[in-house]
């Protein structure tokens, strides 16, 4: 079982946010940093261990800087994510740039910053070289094991995935880059998303360490870093259990000793690219009830919508819901919890048992700290909500203001003011 706690008692939270316009995102700084440090501590045994924070999960400088101060790097998948990490003061050597269908300008900027370029396909070797006019000293390849592994529900079957170099190509990739003069090599993969079974992550470590040996035996390339990607999940539903990451660390260490140390391939830096696991449980979407309606079903209509949190509509995913001030009330009413978007799948919950809800109640959607605000959009001209940080000293700081109509109109042309291309 996983507990669905709030960062403060209901009354304290109600008092703190009483003058804050809803909807908005709230992040718990203390919980995020404690969780991040605990994860780092679990892998103290690993040489130069690093977690490249998945910027896509929560691209907010206030949170990114705090994680970078703990020693995190950045997992970037676009040019703006590279620039955002750079603007946060992160050195390029702590950025991992992994993208697909990569434009030339991303190769160029990653190289200029000194970021690690993680190639997604064998054809990207030539594309990168043409873009740069050279090859970097350090290169990494993203591996897709194809039929050798099964992906999980969210990320899908590796055979169907657009990501990564195939089993038949991976050795040639390292051989080619060695001949081109690359001096430092890494290996990365991503075969799971929001996985709660620790054995899946352990099997990924076994796969990559075994491939490390194969690469060395067939090419003479000795890898310097191995990146397990992301994929460590969080228990969105109360009846789910957290992954036992301590067990995962212990088992990966045993594999490292048996497959890397015994074969004289150490030291190899180990890394992850976790975002959701680091801060997902410590972010909340706070929303106010606009209407409670009774049609063929009973509906709770919020002032937020799927433009603010799209995971339930996109994946059918579960987000726990608390009604502030009613945590001790019986959950004896069944509702669909909806937004105002002009789409019938704009639902945060279907047939959810809650305390009786009234207009003006404050609802908290849990586990929204990652892939929440970041996945938002402007359909129906919905404006993006603000983000707030509950700091370690208990103060509430705004870390992204709400989008305004002026922001939304800024890129448009009015009154015949079109610009000739």
Notes on the structure:
The chain folds into two domains: 29-279, Alpha-Beta Barrel (TIM Barrel), CATH 3.20.20; 280-409, Lyase, Ornithine Decarboxylase, Chain A, domain 1 (Beta Barrel). The protein is 29% helix and 21% strand. The chain has twelve helices and 17 strands. The termini are far apart.
Number of helices: 12
Residue windows where pLDDT falls under 50 for at least 5 positions: none
- Quaternary structure annotation: single chain
User: Could you describe the largest sheet, including whether it forms a barrel?
Assistant: 9 strands, mixed
Rg, Å, rounded: 23 Å
Basic shape: globular
Strand tally is: 17
What would a concise description of this structure say?
By secondary structure, the chain is an alpha/beta fold.
Helix-strand blueprint:
Layout: H1 10-17, E1 24-28, H2 29-42, E2 50-54, H3 61-69, E3 73-76, H4 79-87, E4 95-98, H5 104-113, E5 116-119, H6 124-132, E6 138-143, H7 170-179, E7 184-189, H8 198-219, E8 225-227, H9 245-261, E9 269-272, H10 276-279, E10 283-294, E11 298-302, H11 311-315, E12 321-323, E13 333-338, E14 347-354, E15 362-365, E16 386-390, E17 396-400, H12 405-409
Parallel strand pairs: 1-16, 2-3, 2-9, 3-4, 4-5, 5-6, 6-7, 7-8, 8-9, 11-13
Antiparallel strand pairs: 1-10, 10-11, 10-15, 12-15, 13-14, 16-17
């Amino acid at each position: 079982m996983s507990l669905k706690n709030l960062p403060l008692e209901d009354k304290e939270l109600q008092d703190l946010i009483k003058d804050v316009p809803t909807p908005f995102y709230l992040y718990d700084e203390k919980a995020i940093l404690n969780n991040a440090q605990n994860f780092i501590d679990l892998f103290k045994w690993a040489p130069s261990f690093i977690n490249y924070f998945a910027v896509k999960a929560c691209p907010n400088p206030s949170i990114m800087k705090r994680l970078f101060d703990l020693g995190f790097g950045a997992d970037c998948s676009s040019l703006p994510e590279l620039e955002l990490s750079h603007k946060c003061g992160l050195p390029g050597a702590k950025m991992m740039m992994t993208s697909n269908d990569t434009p030339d300008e991303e190769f160029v900027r990653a190289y200029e910053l000194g970021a690690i370029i993680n190639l997604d396909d064998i054809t990207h070797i030539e594309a990168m070289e043409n873009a740069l006019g050279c090859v970097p000293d350090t290169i990494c390849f993203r591996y897709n094991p194809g039929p050798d592994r099964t992906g999980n529900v969210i990320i899908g079957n590796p055979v169907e995935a657009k990501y990564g170099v195939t089993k038949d190509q991976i050795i040639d990739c390292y051989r080619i880059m060695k001949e081109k003069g690359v001096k430092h090599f890494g290996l990365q993969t991503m075969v799971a998303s929001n996985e709660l079974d620790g054995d899946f992550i352990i099997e990924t470590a076994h796969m990559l360490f075994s491939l490390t040996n194969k690469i060395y035996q067939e090419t003479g390339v000795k890898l310097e870093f191995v990146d397990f990607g992301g994929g460590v999940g969080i228990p969105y539903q109360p009846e789910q259990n957290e992954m036992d990451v301590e067990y995962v660390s212990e088992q990966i260490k045993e594999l490292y000793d048996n497959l890397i140390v015994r074969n004289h391939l150490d030291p190899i830096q180990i890394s992850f690219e976790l975002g959701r696991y680091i801060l997902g449980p410590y972010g909340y979407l706070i929303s106010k009830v606009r209407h409670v309606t009774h049609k063929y079903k009973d509906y709770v209509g919020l002032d937020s919508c799927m433009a603010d949190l799209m995971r339930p509509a996109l994946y059918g995913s579960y987000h726990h819901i608390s009604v502030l001030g009613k945590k001790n009330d019986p959950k004896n009413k069944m509702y669909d919890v909806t937004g105002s978007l002009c789409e019938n799948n704009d639902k945060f919950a279907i047939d959810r048992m809650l305390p009786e809800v009234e207009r003006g109640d404050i609802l908290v959607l849990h586990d929204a700290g990652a892939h929440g605000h970041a996945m938002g959009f402007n359909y129906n001209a919905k404006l993006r909500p603000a983000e707030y940080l509950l700091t370690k000293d208990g103060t509430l700081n705004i870390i992204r203001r709400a989008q305004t109509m002026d922001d939304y109109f800024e890129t448009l042309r009015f009154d015949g003011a079109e610009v000739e291309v």
